[in-house]
Amino acid sequence: MLGTQAASPLSFWIGLEPGKVVQLDDVVVTRRDVPGYGPVLVAGVVTTVEARHEGAAYDSDVFLIADGALPAAVVEVAEVRVTRVEPEVFVPPLPGAKVHLAGSGDRDQALYFDVMDRRIPLGMGRDGQPLYVNFDFLDGTRGAHVSISGVSGVATKTSFATFLLYSIFNSGVLAGEAANTKALIFSVKGEDLLFLDHDNLRLDDRARDVYGRLGLPAKAFGSVHVFAPPRPGDPNGVPHVASRTQGVSAFYWTLVEFCEEELLRFVFADADDERAGYSLLVGQVAARLKAWAEPVGDGGAVRVRGTSCRTFGDLVELLSDELQEEEARREWTGAQTPLGTVNAFLRRLRSAVRPLSPIVRGDLPFFRNHQVRTSDAQVSIVDLHNLPERAQRFVVGVVLRGEFHRKESSGTARPLLFVVLDELNKYAPREGDSPIKEILLDVAERGRSLGVILIGAQQTASEVERRIVSNSAVRVAGRLDPAEAARSEYGWLPPAVRERATIAKPGTMFVAQPEIPVPLAVVFPFPAWATRPAEAATQPSARTTAAGGDPFQGLPGVEDDIPPF
Length: 565
Description:
This is ATPase. There is one protein chain. This protein is α/β, with parallel strands linked by helices. It has three domains: 11-111, no CATH class; 134-233 and 402-428 and 442-535, Rossmann fold (3-Layer(aba) Sandwich); 253-361, no CATH class. The protein has 17 helices and 22 strands. The strands form five sheets. Strands 11-10-17-9-18-19-8-20-21-22 form a ten-stranded mixed sheet. A five-stranded antiparallel sheet has the order 1-4-3-2-5, covered by helices on one side. Strands 13-14-15 form a three-stranded antiparallel sheet. It is elongated.
């Protein structure tokens, strides 16, 4: 303990003996005998390390000292932020007291791992030992939701989210609920997430050893099903994927479902739509469609006021004709509606025909399984990368609403449903309102009690609705843009950690959880599952293997960007 720097019960400085080294994130402990209480343990994490010449007065003295012409000593000091005082007698450590690197027992006590009855491996610390998060702050017991921020492409936000899911499913904390606990992942970046159930060919013995030290098996996800939109123009509704042929289902909504479930509001799911004057008109038209649409045949087509519609374009044309005629418009809107408002509504609606036609249709057999569902596998992946942004918003909004309502109707929070959603700043922006934002706010504020846990990722937390970020018990930051790191939304990162986040390497994350007052620097292991088609080993699961095998097995897949590991 240094005597030249003031120590407090919250932080103190230490000096290093010659030949000794500490680095950032090391855990250190010291003890002090307090009269009436006995020995008090003070533990903390190293947040700053400095070295200087003691005795130098000018910058140029360094050259004289190096040549031996001027006597001086090299001194290394480190700042320690206190994480735990046990028992809770908040007195400062005394100058001259010895400080040690924490052993296994002291380390667990310093980081509260000893009181985590249900803990999830997060990865390895810089000391090569496992780091954990308390599952009580993930499953809704004492908190829920995860917010992950970082620069696109180098922050490995999606990779960390999938590892966190893997750790939850395989660490044993779910016990008997593991088989029924589900995850719903929205994939917007190529086909990288479509092979989570394939072993990674690039996994080496060193990576397997890391999984062993974390207490996790080094294997792929065991139960995965992929949902993809139909190929545009394909009359059979074949899933639009290039590299995966098994365990893939097409998803779409029939015109009957579109009208009965009042999905029109999700066509106008941009925040700008709520600010426009036609937002009330959207609800009125959706209500009329629900009341007037009648099923036609077995393909999901509808008849509205005597006109049959088999495609989304047909339905839009019907609405256009009806709303532009004054008498019919009054019947649709129930009141006088300015023609300018109607035209703005129709312009926006017509622009949705091309992006939504493949997924809103009435030309395929109604009895086919065509909806996104989480009952088929432990991990359900909704592939959105082939859809325009307008269609992506529609799918995310409708699927989230359906799953949230299903959990509400079940009447119980168990089994849990984890929802992984990237680009959260696009779906729940800070400014404006939209149907998707309403659902995400509902998930953030009520999902804990319903067993719906959001794992949201975004490039900029400063652009995400505050209530969503503030309801996240666990916050994670990867590589950050320097301007973004200076925002108040990252106040949970100490200044030194903010600076480090701007130069963090891919695979390094800073994780804050309520029990530990200092964010932990975590290095999570190389994925044991394929992160792109070229890494995928032979599908090990018989659940999705077609009779006779895959005739395309072994052929090279589509090359995506190499993940930053």
